[in-house]
Amino acid sequence: MSLSRWLIVAVCLVAQAPALAQTPLDYEVFRTRIQPLFLAKREGHARCYSCHRGTGAGNGYLQMLTPGATTWDDTQSRKNFESIRRFIVPGDPLSSRLLLHPLDEHAGGDRFHAGGKHWQSQQNPEWQALAAWVRGNSPGMQAAGSRVRVVQTNAAGDNVHLIDPATNTIAGVIKGIEVPHGAAAAPDGTRLYFSDEAESTLDVVDARTLAVIKRIPLSGRPNNIDIAKDGKKVYVSIAQAPGAVDVIDTARMERVSSIAVEGAVHNTYVTPDGKFIVAGSIAGRKLTVIDAATEQIAWKLPFENGVRPITFERNADGSTKRMFVQISEVHGFAVVDFATQREVARVTLPDLPPPAMKNTEGVQGSPSHGIGIAPDGKTLWATSKYYAYVAAFSMPDLAPLGIVPVGHDPDWLTFTPDGKTVYVACAGSDFVVAVDVATRKEVARIPVGFVPKRNITATLAN
Ligand code: HEC
Q1: Among 50, 156, 317, 420, which one is least packed by beta carbons within 10 Å?
Q2: How many A from CA of 114 to the centre of ligand 1?
Q3: Sequence-separated (6 or more) residues with CB below 8 Å from residue 85
Q4: Are 290 and 279 in contact (CB under 8 A)?
Q5: How far is CA 106 from each of CA 59, 94, 115, 117, 333, rounded to the nearest angstrom?
């Protein structure tokens, strides 16, 4: 590029910097996810395209489709993108005419649109997709082309839902896994693994076709699972006496060993550095740390009650610093120092004053079940089944930041790779709540299958 061209470009970039730097409007997202909304038929409504097609002038801001074509080509899409931009205030959905005009007045829209009110609520998935695009903060968008999915198992169902976090809609359903328990994704995104309680198998799913390609027999009824960082082994909690962690070789697709652990195992984790396998037992009331290389038990830590979900804090070198351990009957979690192998603190979740109702039914011995640290390491989140909320704490000091109400019996949570959103599975409400980590506000409520519990975030191969 010549110096003068470069200068012009540089000056333009500087001139536009404030808006662009915060919230670029992504053309690819517009082309693949937003444009289809203009052609979609909504029950009883005329399509946006039917009234807004034209040459770009006046209300005709959508290009005419080429006869016979069902969507716009790239040149037409770019023209649509340029004319639609006029109705957008980047970063601010509620100031953007495109989002206010077809939105019902009672839901925050404006008074009248000659084309009608197509969305009755800001929770509408189409509206949410538009809002995410305008905010420019949606995880799926930064990695346009890759498929980031929140993988949601349905514990009382026979299927698994895949949520697209860019639109907060269901992007796929895996069928034929009855009572799915834990989920894990191959690091290369080609496969998903699920423990299958009905068949006592580890089910291997092709990430492209979403078909079950193999059911690997286990040594007993499974609970939760995790995968080695290199993807070569899957570790499966065996939730029946005497208790074990089954080791599955993913290349051979068979069980290669069972590590004996005292007490039925509920959750199994691989530490973030990949060096240890940590197994929590409810019946054995114990946490067992296993050396992943030798499959020998390194150390154990007993608790007064069953060991439930765990999350891990890392040292700068990636090794484990502290573990945050949920315990049966405890409305909070224990803090365990990994180096000294001791419990060093306990954190209790807040009780809510009336009129909040304390729900003690169906908590399955576990008032707080579901815990995780955001990818940036700055906040820790834990759920309350007593009060149907998710609580946030700052890290590393564990100062309470606040709570966010969710659905009934929140059971598990997972973060998007960019750490901006946390997805909370609400087992008693059959939906997943997406919460904005920075503002601690609900951004979407996504209906899934029956009794959604474990979930993970996976980047699937295309
Ligand atoms: C029945 C025809 C019709 C349909 C269907 C329709 N519109 Fe409109 N729309 C209009 C007319 C006419 C106007 C100009 C008058 C007004 O603002 O109400 C308009 C205005 C707008 C504007 C404001 C344009 C400006 O100049 O400020 C936006 C944005 C818009 N429509 C978006 C949509 C979207 C998105 C859809 C589909 C979800 C849609 N419209 C469906 C007829 C329609």
Answers
A1: 317
A2: 6
A3: 25
A4: yes
A5: 25, 13, 17, 11, 41
- Identify the residue with better confidence: 396 or 137: 396
Ligand 1 pocket, residue 54 CB under 6 Å = no
Most ligand 1 atoms within 8 A of CB, residue of 35, 39, 45, 52 to mutate: 52
Is residue 57 within 6 Å of ligand 1 at its C-beta?
no
pLDDT(430) > 70? yes
Query: What is the b/e burial string over 320-336, where b = at least 16 CB atoms within 10 angstroms of the residue's CB?
Result: bbbbbbbbbebbbbbbb
Distance CA(179)–CA(200), nearest Å, equals 10
By alpha-carbon position, which residue is closest to atom 14 of ligand 1? 114
Task: Fill in the amino acid letter for 282.
Answer: I
Q: What is the pLDDT of residue 27?
A: 87
How many whole angstroms separate alpha carbon 269 and alpha carbon 344?
21
Mean pLDDT along residues 281-309? 97
Cα→Cα distances 157→204, 430, 458, Å: 18, 11, 21
pLDDT tier, 428 (very low <50, low <70, confident <90, very high otherwise) = very high
The predicted-structure confidence for 367-413, as pLDDT tens digits, reads as follows 999 999 999 999 999 999 999 999 999 999 999 999 999 999 999 99
203-206 own/partner pairs: CB under 8 Å, 24+ apart: 203/177, 204/250, 204/253, 205/174, 205/177
Contact 455, 412 (CB under 8 A): yes
The rounded distance, in Å, linking the Cα atoms of 359 and 85 is 48
Residue with tokens 């060993």: 257
